[in-house]
């Protein structure tokens, strides 16, 4: 449990009051006056319109005036003219994200900004399906990376609102939208293939009870089964007491190997196995997934499945192409790559 | 290194083409026609205007027509009338976030949505200072949680763009803005106070070399020093080889205790100490921070500093109050609470 601390409120003695917004917010008319040009010229220059030829000195004057006055164009006003913004909307992760995903997000946002898009992450907490789609559509994004759970109707709402590219993220494509497919069966297949090669024919598969992880755990289990090994699903909560019960169950069943869902659950399981006097890998082999640093710090060192995503640059180019020249039909891409990192635990 | 997989592109045989946006996007005029009311009435109903009295059946007719046609109001158009949107902009974390922060973010976004705000996370990768402020201002947020690094000028740009509450997040307030202060000196103080009580007068303090962590590591070190113990800064990279060198250094210096920055660095250090045959806590005591689950899985179990943030509900109320009735001067709040979780490693 996280404690809720008291929040003391302090009033510093000297500081400029932030107050309500000043009424003197600079407008494009102010910029035009200061630069000695028309408002239309200001608009052409600041919106980087290529249709109208404007001399370099004039451009420079407008930019300088805008900077001096602190004028900021209004994305909303631009979007009313264009029918959409330059916003690329994507779901804010609602679970803690690891280094793989956060590194990818950074790179992707940076790459999008170089194409002059604004990457915006939007929480999907407490809203789902059509409600989420309507809330997202209000921002008039030019492109959306939508959770596949948004469904066909939600996708349609976003497309009708002016989004030129709607791309779902998930295990399966959604009709009518482009799709980036993260097929987690591959993770289970890679783990089970290795265990099968090491002679295991019947393996336990940890299935976290924690909310939101089913979306990954279920396909990983299916992937294990695709290799032909017998898979025994072992539900587990992320605490030591529960892990000790799972270990007792593993011994009753006489399982010789476990695919532990990911490296963190593998660490939990290894601790419980070792506390119970079970030797790893001789009595029970363990395979994790994610290739976190902590796997290298365990003894024995953890054998794991490394996941990889495409580069952010590659994905930004994909989005930009779909926006600029929408193809005739949906494009579907597999983005998740899984490979074995063999160490000592299996 | 993360490998970059090839992305195979597939064209599914049967699926409705997503194509460019349909020209038949429903407008408020369509809604008005379908509901048999004026466009003004549609606008009053969908913008929930309280100034105009509209009967419940009419309201219902408008909402039903909007739903049937799939009409979504345009946040940008509303923002042009109001001068700002209902967007609360906050920085997207650019480092992997732990359960504490991601849980807090979820709760905060959910609480904001109940006040009819839209929480939007905005990447700050590759932009800084005034550039970031200008990019953020384009979205015309009604409130901004800005990194303190945005500075006085950036804050001013956001305020002039119409943001009614600009609240910085950081170790120090920024002149002219409200501030949520996360004072990480408290974390170092709590760790060092415990070690001091256990008789340690000279302790090592791990200082991660990884980018972006200085902002937390430097104040934590300062907090250690505030307790009167002698602190020896030990720069460390997050890999085993470097950790082994740090252990050699700890032995040369004859240090009897280390504050390890956080639980993950504590795990790295404990592994390197144990691999070198150093007993924990008898030869060297170790304190982490964050109270992650992995600390409970280490042997000996990790003594750590637990951090706590205010509830998301509390913070959403704070933001809403600043937006609705901007106070005369800036409000400054301490939000970080630190407390010791004593286990076996120190």
UniProtKB/TrEMBL annotation, chains A, B:
Write down the Pfam families for this protein, in alphabetical order. Answer: LacI (PF00356), Peripla_BP_3 (PF13377)
For the HTH lacI-type domain, which residue ranges apply? 26-82
**Alphabetized UniProt keyword annotations:** DNA-binding, Transcription, Transcription regulation
Q: Which domain of life is it from?
A: Bacteria
Region listing for Disordered, in residue ranges: 1-29
Q: Which InterPro entries match?
A: HTH_LacI, LacI/GalR-like_sensor, Lambda_DNA-bd_dom_sf, Peripla_BP_I
One molecular function GO term is: DNA-binding transcription factor activity
Question: This chain belongs to which protein, by name?
Answer: LacI family DNA-binding transcriptional regulator
Instruction: Specify the taxonomic lineage.
Output: Bacteria, Bacillati, Actinomycetota, Actinomycetes, Kitasatosporales
């Amino acid at each position: 449990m996280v404690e809720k601390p008291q929040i003391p409120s302090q009033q510093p003695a000297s500081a400029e009051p932030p107050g309500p917004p000043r009424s003197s917010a600079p407008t494009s008319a102010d910029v035009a006056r200061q630069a000695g040009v028309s408002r239309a010229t200001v608009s052409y220059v600041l919106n980087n319109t290529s249709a109208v030829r404007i001399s370099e000195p004039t451009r420079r004057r407008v930019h300088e005036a805008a900077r001096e006055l602190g004028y900021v164009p209004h994305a909303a006003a631009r979007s009313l003219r264009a029918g959409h913004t330059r916003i690329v909307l994507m779901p804010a992760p609602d679970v803690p994200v690891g280094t793989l995903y956060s590194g990818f997000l950074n790179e992707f946002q940076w790459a999008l900004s170089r194409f002059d898009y604004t990457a915006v992450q939007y929480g999907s907490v407490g809203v789902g399906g059509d409600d989420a789609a309507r809330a997202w559509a209000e921002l008039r994004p030019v492109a959306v990376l939508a959770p596949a759970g948004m469904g066909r109707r939600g996708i349609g709402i976003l497309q009708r609102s002016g989004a030129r590219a709607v791309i779902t993220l998930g295990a399966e494509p959604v009709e009518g939208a482009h799709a980036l497919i993260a097929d987690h069966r591959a993770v289970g297949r890679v783990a089970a293939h290795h265990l099968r090669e090491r002679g295991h024919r019947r393996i336990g598969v940890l299935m976290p009870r924690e909310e939101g992880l089913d979306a990954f755990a279920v396909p990983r289990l299916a992937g294990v089964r695709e290799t032909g090994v017998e898979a025994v699903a072992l539900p587990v909560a992320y605490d030591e007491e529960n892990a000790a019960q799972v270990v007792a169950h593993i011994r009753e069943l006489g399982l010789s190997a476990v695919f532990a869902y990911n490296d963190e659950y593998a660490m939990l399981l290894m601790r419980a196995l070792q506390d119970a006097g079970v030797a790893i890998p001789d009595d029970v082999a363990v395979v994790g997934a994610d290739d976190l640093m902590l796997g290298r710090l365990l003894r024995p060192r953890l054998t794991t499945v490394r996941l990889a995503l495409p580069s952010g640059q590659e994905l930004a180019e994909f989005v930009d192409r779909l926006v600029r020249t929408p193809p005739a039909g949906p494009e579907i891409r597999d983005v998740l790559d899984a490979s074995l990192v063999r160490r000592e635990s299996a």
